[in-house]
From TrEMBL:
It is found in: Membrane. It is a single-pass type I membrane protein. One of its GO terms (molecular function) is signaling receptor activity. Its main location: membrane. This is TIR domain-containing protein. GO terms for biological process: inflammatory response; innate immune response; toll-like receptor signaling pathway. Residues 788-928 form the TIR domain. InterPro entries: Cys-rich_flank_reg_C, Leu-rich_rpt, Leu-rich_rpt_typical-subtyp, LRR_dom_sf, TIR_dom, Toll_tir_struct_dom_sf. Coiled coil: none annotated. The lineage of its organism: Eukaryota, Metazoa, Chordata, Craniata, Vertebrata. One of its GO terms (cellular component) is plasma membrane. It comes from Anabas testudineus. The keyword Glycosyltransferase does not apply.
Amino acid sequence: MPPGGRSSLCFILRLLVLLPFLLQPSLAYSLKNCTIDYSDDPLDDVFVDCSSRELVTVPDDLPRHVTSVKLFHNLLKKIHRKDFGSLSKLRSLNLQDNYITHVDDGSFIHLGALTTLDIRSNRLTNLTANLFQGLSNLTVLVLSTNHIKVIHTSAFQFLSSLQTVMLGFNNLQQITDIQPILQLPHLQELSISYNLFTSFETKDLQLSKSSGLKVLDVSYNKLKKFSITTPIFPHLQSIDLSRCGQAGVLKWDIPDKSLLRNITHLYLGHTLIPYDEIQQVQQSLDSLMHLRLGYKKLINKRLLDTFCKIPTLRKLDLSSNKVASKKLVSCSQLSELDLSDTHMTELPKGSIRSMKRLRSLNVEHNFYHNVPHDVRSLSSLEILNLNDNLISELSCDDFINTTRLIELHLKTNRIAKLVKCVFEKLNELKVLDLSHNMLQTFGNSFKTGALKLEFLDLSENSVQHLEKGDFQGLISLKYLNVVSDDIDNTAFKGLNNLETLVIHVPLSFKYNFTDLPKLENLIIYLSNVSSLKSLNTNSVEAFFNLKSLKSFTMICSGHLCGFDCDKLTQTLRGMNHLEDFTADNIYNSAAQVGTLRFNVHLKRLTIRQTDLSELDPELFHPIPNLEVLDFSSCKLKSLDFLVKARPPALRFLNLSNNELTVINETVFQSLPALTYLDLDNNPFTCDCSNAGFIQWVIGNNQTQVVNAHQYTCSSPGAEQGRKLLDFDVQSCWMDVGFLCFISSTCLVVLTLLSSFIYHFLRWQLSYGFYLFLAFIYDSRKKKKGTPHQFDAFVSYNVHDEAWVYREMLPVLEEEQGWRLCLHHRDFQPGEPMENITDTIYSSRKTICVISQHFLQSEWCSREIQMASFHLFDEQKDVLILLFLEEIPDQQMSPYYRMRKLVKRRTYLSWPQAGQHTGVFWQNVRRALETGDDPTDNNLLTGPAQC
């Protein structure tokens, strides 16, 4: 086969092989640079995360039905009109922290469902007239931290539903720049902080009607004047002037306090405003409820007293200031006070004693060594935050009168012990955080009091031993997080309502859960790597009574804990309602068959950092409802166990950080519900053994293969470091084996076909071939118009040559005078086939001397074939058949039978002539004399009568 034909054949074969893949739907879930956040319900909203991928363009493979896209922290410089053209269902778009300098007009025209657009931390300089075209349902627009100087007067004309606009950290200078924003019909919140405004005066605004604005943030501007003299903000509730007036003092100009009659929140953190101006502020506000006050100088009693005259004030925020340690506040009407991060070492007695309505006190991030004394007088206190101080001791009097306390936060202090009476009066307490302290004992503090406590965090302490009845008074407790080196078997007695238990223990723990009838969530952090292999039977049986448990987690820090798998079976035996099981760095080998036979309701199974290379697929048979499977970092080399297990409900599969090199795509065909697959950090082989898997990743439209386009090749050496999905799988379909298969198949078919043709059709094909040659020759002769040279061409076999010379020639040539052509006498030296053809077409007639030898002769067959074509083609009676022998019909060649069917005439029998040869030769003469027209039927049909 010529090279061109061979290449064409290869192309066709390759096309046929790849056709099923070419017909696959387009990539839907295995995105090139993004991941789809996993959802338990496939019909839920689709959230795509493309953040921190160093993208320079918006990915072109985002699913059309996506509802949220995160593109923050990339390298985008420009947004083009076509980037989001097909995302008609998108509701949230985050372009934060890129290098965007330009957005084409109409880039968001197809995002009619978008409600939130975040373009903060980019490099935009102006907002054009048609920038936001199409965003009729947008409610939140974040443009902070850009370089915006110019806003076109029509830039916000399409944003009819906009409620929140964030324009902080830009280069706006004039209040008229924001006039288009204030005309929005549904505007509620506007931030123009960190800009270049030097004044904010409503007289400069030309609005056709008042604004519905409720929250105004002009903080961190170099304002010298804040003036509201026109009634354009009748609904304004919050004003933030923090850090204003830094270039000079801020003048407050609101002559008519009715213009601010709805103000409830005012933020003056470190605002440079003279004391006389502060008095004007105080006099302008009749409805103020929340005040944040910061001052470069020391916040003193005089300054505070000014604002405390506002009768409606309920919350005072003095955080991140230096506050005078004298009589701090006389605001007896306060319900919330924030003194966090005020560098205070103590709160003098009487400072807040008058605040009889105080419900929340925050003094975290200070230097208190004791609970402030005034807390004892705050009988209405409900929330007390003392986190991150230097408190080392709690006394029985600290909370003696705070009987309404609901939340008490003592995290990150230096408390080493508790006394019995410390929480005795806190009968309404529900939340207590004592984590990150130095506790070694509880001192029976939980045996009495705190009857309504529901949340208790004792983690990150140094408790050596949990004793019997340590928590017996906490009859309402639902959540407990505790650490201990030793836990008594009855340590949790009395916790009849506990639902979640988090314990940090050494490996050699000994305890049971007989007194936890409602426990649903158990998390055990194991540490102090000694030997869990020595875990005794009593310790394992500690888990037998967890009949209500739904979630069980065991995490071992440090080296592998080495939990014996036999113990695993015993551990899970009593958990008949378990739905979620996690074992991280716990077991020394794969769980054995029957381990989960008592956990038929299991939906989520996580086993990490364990050697599961010998995993038996029978493990999964008792858990048909399994939906989430995480076997990351488990030394898996094959996924055959999934093919045999075939968990029908499995939707989430994490197999990252294993030793998988080759993956058969049929594995995932056995998981009909799979929607999320993580195979990151596996040493993939980039050769044809993974071709099917690669095609499956690209073509399937159900399962998201997380970060599939980032998977790299580990072998062979030539492919190392390349991307797995960049491997050319087409070459795999045309390998040597495949070509050999095709070739051998074609050869077999050709052999069978040739045998069939030779046996059944050889004469017909041969006849057709010579007819074709005759047709070619006849065409030439017609063009030349050459006259006949002979009266007849005599076709005979060499065995019949004696009869021709003895009987035929003397009569036909010598007596009758016909000019005959005989091949041995008249043929020109050269090609025999050419001689036969030329002679037949140069003779008026062809006489075939037929005998047994004639029928067996190849050359005679060719001669009669040529004569037959002359007969058929020109419709001339040119053929004369002379039979020297009686030949049965079954021995007749196909050519004679065809002649017999077409024209039953002009054939003569020498045996029938007998002694009357004269009649025979007269019939031959008559045949030679007759015309070529087939209508000249002057001879008898059938054998000639002699």
